[in-house]
Fold each of these.
Amino acid sequence: MYNYKSDATQFLEDYLEKHPEEAKQRLKNRGILWDVELNPEEEAGYQAAKLPKKPYAYQPD
């Protein structure tokens, strides 16, 4: 099997092994950026504000 790991991957794995507290911080930071609850009212407003796309974007009107 293919077992190559880049220098960056090896560094990160080694660092996380030596600093286990960083794994908790990574999960916390991930939650800030990605695990966000969307407001249904705002989301509905975004959907209502969308303009229809033209079938061919480069054709002049």
Note: Residues 11 and 31 are 24 Å apart (CA to CA).
Amino acid sequence: MPQYKDQLDRTVTLPELPQRIISLVPSLTELLYDLGVGDRVVGITKFCIHPESWRKTKTRIGGTKQLKHDVIASLAPDLILANKEENTREDVETLIPHYPVWVSDINDLSEALEMIRTVGEATGSLSRAVSLADEIQTSFQSLPQTKLQRVLYLIWQNPWMTVGRDTFIDDMLQRCGYENVVTANRYPILTDEEIVALRPEVVMLSSEPFPFGDQHAERIQTLLPDSQVLLVDGEMFSWYGSRLRLSVAYFSRLINRITRPS
């Protein structure tokens, strides 16, 4: 039986061709669809919204951080795809003794491309995966660079939560040419006063995990009257699977919008 290293450097032994796959990660669920292995995907989370048709046809095994282990057991998976950040350590460690669990850990584009190729190989769709990864890599090489601007990217409110260094979103911001005003690692919490002190030129309010809306943009604009405040598509910044094919076109429109405000 073939063995694969996951992104935690664990060796995972899989069947020659997994037939009962569970995805615990929305962006990896979409990747499996685009790799053409949908007939072998038996379980997804309630947050796996792409493709839309799977929400009605695939068994839901709970949320990314609230798994239903009895449902997973009933599906008898021979491959589970998990993520270090999106799933809890307790859940993953509970699954590992019973099933082959391949865990991703993605903080930049290169690790995302590595994941796509490995998942493709493990699921018998290597050719598609390589083509997809090459397409994504080429698209990012053509990404236009904006003038250096100081950006604050928020993912939660009450309290405000942002993205720092050593995150996939930070890597996406850097590839667009932006300077992240947050120098701490991972996901710091900020007060109103700390946001003002950061003096960002641009504030991006993500559509996920918190669904920011106009009322939140207005509140930030009150705090930062001289900043440009934008609602942005969080999937484009944080989904590290096949959705990356769409990211560069979105980033290019966003760059144009920021450098040429209406």
Note: Residues 37 and 123 are 7 Å apart (CA to CA).
